[in-house]
Specification:
41 residues; 78% helix; mainly alpha
Length: 41
């Protein structure tokens, strides 16, 4: 596998990972807000 191909693969994996993490983070924040957590007041 050439370097450009490898770079492209890694970028794709990172992009998917970041998207997934962001969705999980948003869900976690929504749940936190529902639990009367004073942090969000």
């Amino acid at each position: 596998m050439s370097e450009p191909e490898l770079k492209e693969k890694i970028e794709k994996i990172l992009e998917e990972g970041i998207k997934d993490m962001t969705e999980k983070l948003i869900e976690a924040i929504k749940e936190e807000k529902n639990t009367n957590n004073p942090i969000w007041e």
